[in-house]
Specification:
Blueprint lengths: L1 E9 L4 H6 L6 E9 L2 E7 L4 H10 L5 E4 L4 E7 L3 H6 L4 E2 L2 E5 L2 E8 L2 H12 L2 E10 L3 H4 L2 H13 L10 H8 L3 H20 L5 H9 L1
Antiparallel strand pairs: 1-8, 1-9, 2-3, 2-7, 3-5, 4-5, 6-8, 7-8
Helix pairs in contact: 6-8, 7-8
Length: 214
């Protein structure tokens, strides 16, 4: 698995750009969920929490804004495009990313370099993007059992992770001589191991996530 730091300046109007326009400040956004064209995130607003809350609540396209505490806001709104470009090309965002004026700093995880190329090409249709640090994270062979590695590699080569998928899970399971349920179990455990390693989580991701939220 690889991680790329992408610097993205969006052309289209976005409420987050407006909040920080004309300032040198940056704020952290923690991605909670990306579903279809909607993104939910925690905005680490700090001393700007009151002002940001009022402006977000008044924005027509913001679906929901909730005051979590003195410093943090939970926001749900339509994606301005970058998240869709990342996720439809099999990328995954690390939890914390940064917004400074109209520029975003995204930390994107991906399995193949061609996925990164497609992510960058799609983001260039929305604004300007430049690649910062690119690194391989984790020891992919050591993190997976031999069987998990075999299943994941077969899934990659068969186009299971393409968009749209080039092979159905039933077909993939038949090619491997296993049940569909067993296929999904191998893929789920392999993906969890790879993501946990890449994100620096503990052996129990649920426990680590709970600790981070407390």
């Amino acid at each position: 698995m690889f991680q790329a730091t992408l610097y993205f300046k969006q052309r289209r109007d976005c409420i987050l750009n407006e909040l920080l326009d004309g300032t040198d400040e940056s704020v952290v956004i923690e991605i909670e969920e990306v579903q279809n064209d909607t993104v939910t995130f925690v905005l680490r607003a700090g001393s700007h929490a009151d002002e940001f809350y009022e402006r977000l609540a008044a924005a027509d396209h913001v679906t929901e804004v909730v005051r979590l505490n003195d410093d943090n806001l939970l926001v749900r709104k339509p994606s301005c495009g970058a998240y869709s470009a990342i996720y439809k090309n099999h990328g995954m965002l690390r939890r914390q990313n940064t917004v400074a004026g109209s520029q975003r700093v995204y930390h994107v995880l991906f399995f193949r370099r061609e996925d990164l190329k497609r992510i960058v090409n799609d983001m260039r249709e929305l604004g300007t993007v430049s690649l910062g640090r690119l690194e391989e994270v984790g020891d992919r062979q050591a993190e997976l059992t031999e069987r998990q590695r075999t299943v994941v590699l077969h899934a990659l080569r068969a186009g299971y992770y393409e968009w749209p998928r080039e092979v159905k899970s039933e077909e993939l399971a038949a090619e491997l001589g296993i049940s569909r349920a067993t296929l999904h179990e191998h893929l789920r455990k392999a993906e969890q191991r790879l993501l946990s390693e890449a994100l620096g989580l503990a052996d129990d991701p649920a426990e680590a996530f709970a600790d981070a939220r407390s």
